[in-house]
Specification:
414 residues; 6% helix; 50% strand; globular
Length: 414
């Protein structure tokens, strides 16, 4: 039996009686909330530059080693000989990849592990690696020589596809490169389009929504694949080093700390709390927590830090304004078994309620579930979908609201 649970994250308040008390209570409850050091007193060190989770194992790459933890970060072990820069991490087809910029003991290369990070071997590229981006069929890397390489055979061969320098992000068929500006290719590097001119070092994309972080302390947001931009944050002098998105939650790591948004990246608030003004280098989500890494900066220990995602979202949802646009988010987790969550938002159109229909289809176009079919107020919604009676495979979910329609793919893997 399919089980559906719906949560309303925001809706306009027609009655304000007691609102001040609710906000004050929640704010007081969160006042002492702090970031927790993961594995305090462990051997982790050096500037941590990249985070990744795979099969419940945590990885942290930096300027000392590639660190690995099998106990949720309580203890860490260093892999390889002493690394100078393990700047980038990626996973593809259940294999792990680590980009080594330079080292005293190993050749700079993209290293591959087929056994959850226990052993690593270099692939067929000998370059100083700046960045990695991967899907299940393709792995891209950019190098210090200003080149981008592509492998489609898990690193057996690499082909240079571009003379472009940049920090990479892959979203569907679009490969973004943030460097002297922001560039994008949709044909595996045969041609590139320049979509922003400011120098940058971070980019995150989810379908048509793109976030671009610059060396000027700016975050730009686009909802049309980078054709037009809205500046949503400006902190002069603070490089925007990392960007991350989880449903409507958006986080940005800068030289002066962490900024978060709970309205899909339109408004940001400073949330470093007990981390002072440390440099935040990478951000990820795992098992109900937001994890971040930091550099050796502002007297705060270099470590991996975590905090329940609920601490970073619950208070701000009460303060949020209605969504600016209709959006259908990618389900999480994906792949899933047997349940997953889907979020979508409906803006205030000034016409009252909006008929919203959210359905799930198989690859033949057969409807397998109706998740929503009613009139909804402006707000942000979450649907929990349990598909325990469905077979493994690819499914599509479609949101129709007014004149808006969008479809996304999800994978049920039992």
């Amino acid at each position: 039996m399919k089980y559906i649970r719906t949560f309303l994250f925001f809706r306009p308040l027609t009655k304000v009686r007691g609102l001040f008390f609710i906000v004050l209570f929640l704010y007081s409850f969160k006042l002492n909330a702090q970031w927790s050091e993961v594995g305090a007193g462990s051997s982790i060190g050096g500037d941590i530059m990249a985070l990744m989770e795979h099969n419940n194992i945590l990885y942290a790459g930096g300027t000392a080693y590639l660190f690995r933890s099998t106990d949720s970060g309580i203890t860490w072990s260093g892999l390889f000989d002493l690394f100078a820069y393990a700047w980038s991490l990626a996973k593809s087809n259940n294999n792990l990849y680590c980009g080594l910029f330079t080292s005293s003991g190993q050749t700079a290369s993209v290293y591959k592990s087929t056994n959850n990070g226990s052993d690593w071997l270099p692939t067929a590229i000998a370059e100083n690696i700046i960045s990695l981006a991967a899907s299940d069929s393709e792995i891209y890397t950019s190098t210090s020589s200003g080149k981008i390489f592509l492998t489609t055979d898990e690193g057996v061969t690499w082909n240079q596809i571009s003379n472009v320098f940049g920090y990479l992000f892959l979203s569907g068929s679009r490969l973004y490169a943030a460097g002297s500006g922001l560039k994008v290719t949709t044909d595996k590097g045969n041609s590139w389009s320049s979509i922003h001119s400011n120098p940058g070092i971070s980019v995150f994309a989810e379908d048509s929504i793109v976030f671009f972080g610059t060396q000027y302390g700016e975050i730009f947001r686009s909802s049309d694949y980078g054709q037009t931009w809205l500046q949503v944050l400006h902190k002069p002098g603070a490089y925007v080093r990392s960007l991350f998105k989880y449903f409507d939650f958006v986080a940005a790591g800068t030289d002066s700390g962490l900024y978060i948004s709970n309205d899909n990246g339109f408004n940001f608030a400073y949330r470093n709390d007990n981390l002072g003004r440390t440099m935040v280098t990478d951000i990820m989500y795992y098992d109900g927590y937001i994890y971040l890494s930091n550099g050796n900066y502002a007297g705060v220990p270099v470590a991996v830090w975590k905090r329940p995602v609920s601490e970073l979202t619950s208070v701000y949802n009460i303060h949020s304004s209605p969504p600016y646009e209709i959006t259908l988010m990618q389900n999480y987790p994906n792949p899933f078994n047997p349940s997953t969550k889907i979020r979508y938002s409906i803006p205030n159109t000034g016409t009252g309620l909006t008929l919203s229909v959210l359905k799930v289809y198989d690859t033949l176009g057969n409807e397998v579930a109706t998740l929503v079919d009613d009139y909804r107020e402006a707000g942000r919604y979450e649907i929990e979908f349990n598909s325990s009676d469905l077979p493994s495979g690819i499914y599509y979910y479609k949101l129709t609201a007014g004149n808006f329609s969008d479809v996304k793919k999800m994978i049920l893997l039992k």
